[in-house]
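>> received
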Amino acid sequence: MVPDAAAGSRSELSLGIAAAAMAVTAWGSSGIIVRFIDMGALALMAYRYLLYAIAMAAVLGMRRTPVTWAGMRHSLWGGLSLGAVTGLFIVAVQHTTIANVTIMAALHVVLVSASSALFLKERMRRRDIFLAVLATGGVAVVALGSAGSENWSLAGDLAAVGALFGWAFYFFATRRAQTKVLTQEYTVCVAIYVGVLSLPLAALAGHDLSWPAGEEWMWLAVLAFGMGILGHNAMNWSLQHVPLWLASTLSLLTPVVASALAWLVFDEALSVWQMLAMALVVASLTMIVRDQARPRAGRVPV
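>> returned
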């Protein structure tokens, strides 16, 4: 019997969507975990990514699929862009309002979707565009409701814009690199780049790089492997099986998860409008996912 190619492509698409959803949920949970670690942001980046890189490189070595120089070479742009995104995001959070940073990050959906259509011919239907706009608007309402009284600065907003373009570039760099290197090796190589870049930046910023306390190691492990395996590894894998615009749109769930967990764990206030906006984001993304998973005549497999 000849396998049903359409069914196979739909199965891969469904798994890719599930992996992307898992990744953005893990990313949204990371903000809660960070609060249990008393460490500067750049020092935390160094420990988090290097812990994951060292442990997973050892695992790959034992499986006889070690990290190679070729893998490091093909992962260079992904590592540099993710490191830049993380650093710029920290600068933005420190120098401008959280609302501005969150809304700017949400706009990467527009950038990635336009670039995906232009360069990869992965076009969105009008209905998907409308739903993505609704979800982006919902994220803006959630962010503005949590803005507080932070001070705005042009430097912070420019850093947020840089992170926006860097994140879009990371998606394309990852899609390209994984045609030449396996997902697990790519994720480890990227973690090596980010961890190594973070060390001198943390030292220059005056962050304490001393050995963490015992309990902090537990949270670092949760952050490194939970976000590394369930976050970056899952998202990197999904980018091989879903359109870039879809993976980017699903990442709008990240601030919703973060806000919901902050409400549950730390009893942070959420207004009725924020809750309604969060429900709008979830509903819009669910409709996009259901529409993508539904077979349609003439759809070209990703």
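>> The mean pLDDT is 79.
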